[in-house]
Amino acid sequence: MKGSKWMSFKIVETKEEMDIFKEIWLEVCDEKTFESEEFHSHKTGVHFLFPNKNGEYVGTAEVGRYIPNDNSTVHYYYDFSKLNYIQGNREHVYEIDKVCIKPEYRSQGLLENMIYALLFHHKLFQSTYYVSAIESIFYRALTRIYKVPLVQVEEEEKKMQQFNNFFLHPVHLNPAVYINFLQNEGNTQINLNCLEEIVNAYRADNTSGE
Length: 210
Prior knowledge:
The protein is of the alpha+beta class. The chain is built from 6 helices and 8 strands, in the order βαββαβαβαβββαα.
């Protein structure tokens, strides 16, 4: 799929790719003084790698089933399960974690590719909500530049939390609301036709051998 957004992310499929994922994530953890949580398994999560223009992997994102217990990667920051609309859609709620880009490749459009990966995941798994504890710099970029309708949790003291030298916003997202916005308002960065191309190509690749 030359010239499409298909090559803007790679789903981790091998141990070698997972090793690269962990190396990138832990490198950024050291830079930002993050404490890394446990990683989702292939059974509970999907791991994305993001390449630069030269094809070198420089970013990561993990999307996994939101199971509100000590193994959840975001539950420590906020108990989203107490929200009524999360409770009512538990089987289709996913958590987003381990979103990072190596410092020398930030501000180069990779966040846009991460949005495609998220919407790709939504199309495949029919998610109803995503929950996350997102760093301030990502929060501002997603809401101001890409108009992603992230919703902060209601308690005033939980709208932004400080951990070491960084701030996190506990948020949730209804992806259908964002897609509806893109359909009605349009966005020069996010192209829904491109998204459908990505999803259709993936489905074709994964059913061709059946």
